Amino acid sequence: MLGDAERALAYRRRSGKVEDWRTRETAAEVALERNQPRRAVHLLSGLKQSAVRPLMLLAELKAGIHSPHKVVVLAERLAQAAEKRKDRQTAGRFQRVRAAAAARDKNREVQLSALADALLLDPLDAGPFQVTPALWWHSLVRIGLQLGNQRRLLLGDVQSWLQAAAAENKAQHPMRALALLAAAGMRGPDTVGRGACLAAFAQQLMARAQGIPLALTVFSDPDLFPQPSHLPGALRYQLLEPAVSTGRIGFASALVAGLDQPPAGGDPGDWQLQRARLLLLGGDTKSGIKVLLALAHGQPAVSAQKLLPVVVDLETLGDNRAALGVLEDMLAARPAPPPPQARQILYWIGKAYSGLGSPLNAARSYLEAATFNSPYAMDPWAQTARYSAASALTTAGLYKDALHIYRGLLNATSDPIQQAQIKQKLAALRTLASRANEKNNRLTH
After folding, report:
1. Is the domain of 281 the same as that of 226?
2. CA-CA distance, 218 to 137, in Å (whole number)?
3. How many Å apart are CA 172 and CA 405, to the nearest integer?
């Protein structure tokens, strides 16, 4: 049965209409899927569009018009030219053709390298040029197993695979080395051995040009590794910093899930802070809050100054109730937090109460923060807390109390802009207070 593309092409020919090159391209793709490469070559013949050149070269390879070695060389040159034009899709397609030719030429090193390049250049391409992380990874494992069999390596002998990979590296065959490590890392019989091989794989891959994005693409692929938290610990530590620095926060969050111990030489408190923040930002709020509560109780010890910004992240994410619990635990901790941090904790407690729709409790906490050192304090932090308290009291309908605070703020500043802003607040509050009094009077008569 003819595909839609070939039907459209046949109709255009019968009706005398000009053939659309895209229709011919699609028909050629169908022909290749049906293992009719010469039919594909015929369909593409005469087309001058550069976009069809990779498909033509693939068809010529499969039809035996060019030798695999010739296609490897030609595809590499054309891919480089496309990259110089910043045409990543065409470059990726030529790399995919190069990989297919290398496979026919039994050149494993070039095959793996070309697949990796294609994956990085255009990971979303489809049809005959599609390259997925799984395709590259399974090719690595398959070729690695073949290399291991040639060397008579036993999967249970981890050191022999590591040594073989080192020898391939020394011989300037980095892809063959990666293949050996991938095979042992996936097929080894014990967890420790597999972990050592995967960690060595990641270390070697990320040391290469473009190796970091390739490693992240592979290990974050849900079809290959659906649960990053089940990856070996050493590998997760290696992947974490690149994941964070490239903005893959969801993947980073999954990497630190359950990874309680810091990397070698790391500070336990700083590590748990990083875990908490990543868990929160990655959407695992429950686990992030659990870590924050433990830190608030000194497990492990961490300063309030370091802990507070992460709790503020929790408030920013909208979980004010959980943030309030952590903040109150921090305030009640013994030894007590230093005065500067205690004032900040009180202020953010006020913020949490505001977010929970409890303006009276919010105002109380703000005023505690403002007067922590002295009931008459008017330093910048105290003024900020008093502004917030006045706003909360206004929300609660306690206009006279809010007026009292704004008057104090007006007396404390000499800045004309701030004075004008406060006077506007006072005028608005007086109006609100007057209306409230009129309403009360009507209700009492």
Report:
1. no
2. 7
3. 74
State the total domains in the chain. Answer: 4
C-alpha dihedral sign at 80, 81, 84, 90: negative
Are 156 and 237 found together in one domain? yes
Residue 344 lies in a domain: no
**Tens digits of residue pLDDT in 25-51:** 999 999 999 999 999 999 999 999 989
Cβ atoms of 335 and 348 within 8 Å: the answer is no
User: Residue 436 has what pLDDT?
Assistant: 77
355 inside domain: no
Same domain, 325 and 275: yes
Strands (DSSP E) along 145-207, which ranges? none
Does residue 399 sit in the same domain as residue 326? no
Please say which residue of 221, 241, 259 terminates a domain: 259
The amino acid at residue 55 is L
Q: What is the pLDDT of residue 127?
A: 85
Tens-digit pLDDT profile for residues 62-115: 999 999 999 999 999 999 999 999 999 999 999 999 999 999 999 999 999 999
Is the domain of 240 the same as that of 166? yes
Output the pLDDT for position 2: 41
Domain range holding 11? 1-122
* Three-state DSSP string of 245-313: HCCCHHHHHHHHCCCCCCCCCCCHHHHHHHHHHHHHHCCCHHHHHHHHHHHHCCCCCCCHHHHHHHHHH
Q: Pick from 392, 384, 423, 381: which is nearest to 406 by CA? A: 423
Are 386 and 379 contacting, i.e. CB atoms less than 8 angstroms apart? no
The confidence score (pLDDT) of residue 433 equals: 83
Longest CA span, the chain: 103
Which ranges of 188-210 does DSSP label H, i.e. alpha helix?
191-206
Amino acid making up residue 315: E
Contact present, 262 and 299 (Cβ < 8 Å)? no
Q: At what angle do helices 380-395 and 399-412 cross, to 10 degrees?
A: 160
Q: What residues contact 198, with CB distance under 8 A and at least 6 apart? A: 181, 182, 185, 231, 232, 235
Whether 242 is in a domain gets the answer yes
Alpha carbon separation from 198 to 136, 142, 176, 188 (Å, rounded):
15, 15, 14, 10
Question: In the 8-state DSSP scheme, what is residue 220?
Answer: T
Residue 106: other Cβ atoms inside 10 A: 9
Residue 66 backbone class (left: φ over 0; alpha: ψ -120 to 50; beta: rest): beta
Percent of the chain with pLDDT over 70: 94
| Reduced DSSP (H G I as helix, E B as strand, rest coil) percent helix, strand, coil of the chain, to 5 | 75, 0, 25
Whether 30 and 50 map to the same domain: the answer is yes
Residue 48 domain-assigned?
yes
Q: Give the residues of the chain that fall short of pLDDT 50.
A: 1-2, 13-18
